[in-house]
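User: I'm putting together a teaching handout on how multi-component assemblies are represented. Below are the sequence lines for each component of a complex, exactly as they appear in our records. Could you produce the 3D structure of the whole assembly as structure tokens, so the students can see both representations side by side? Please keep the chain order the same as the input.
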Amino acid sequence: GAGVSQSPSNKVTEKGKDVELRCDPISGHTALYWYRQSLGQGLEFLIYFQGNSAPDKSGLPSDRFSAERTGGSVSTLTIQRTQQEDSAVYLCASSFQGARSYNEQFFGPGTRLTVL
Amino acid sequence: AQKVTQAQTEISVVEKEDVTLDCVYETRDTTYYLFWYKQPPSGELVFLIRRNSFDEQNEISGRYSWNFQKSTSSFNFTITASQVVDSAVYFCALSASFYSGGYQKVTFGIGTKLQVIP
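Assistant: Of course. Below is the structure of the complete assembly, with chains in the same order as your input.
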């Protein structure tokens, strides 16, 4: 398919372990976003990529969270030393940004992270 | 600063009733975009509509319609003759537009959970 894909779809981990979440954006989309959605809550912005650089990391909750993007495509969100409060659905979105873009974001299905 | 307020956290209606989801926004930018997304129980957000701040014309798409009023900074969403399949969480979002190619941050409201009862 041509949509945004995320893997894994579900991840259960033990407190203190590191996890990596992957996002494959829509081909040609230059912008990529990570959000976190806790149970029954709205979308919490984490980080934005334009190409491979991240001009806005203001939403990352702590230094345990980091993200990178390579080749202007795939992005990985890493959470080190996971805590129970990290349990949430992590959503990735991509959009095309250009002079005439309307920047609607297309979302992936999310990764449900459960920290025991 | 950008802010999106969806004051209705949960709404329940009986099938075939009309329902309006409210969205009020704040921005200092004169050029911006407004969006509505639907998140069904399956979880994946689906883009519904985009609106440019220069275009206040209301839009209708089937049973969906949107009322954009700059005077009240509102972008309300109405579902006519609601159906069970409309049950979902609906998010309103705002994006300031920087045509220089700069960052276009999108701010989401907390969402309104709509339950359509058969």
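A couple of points students might notice: Residues 22 and 76 of chain B are 5 Å apart (CA to CA). The radius of gyration of chain B is 14 Å.
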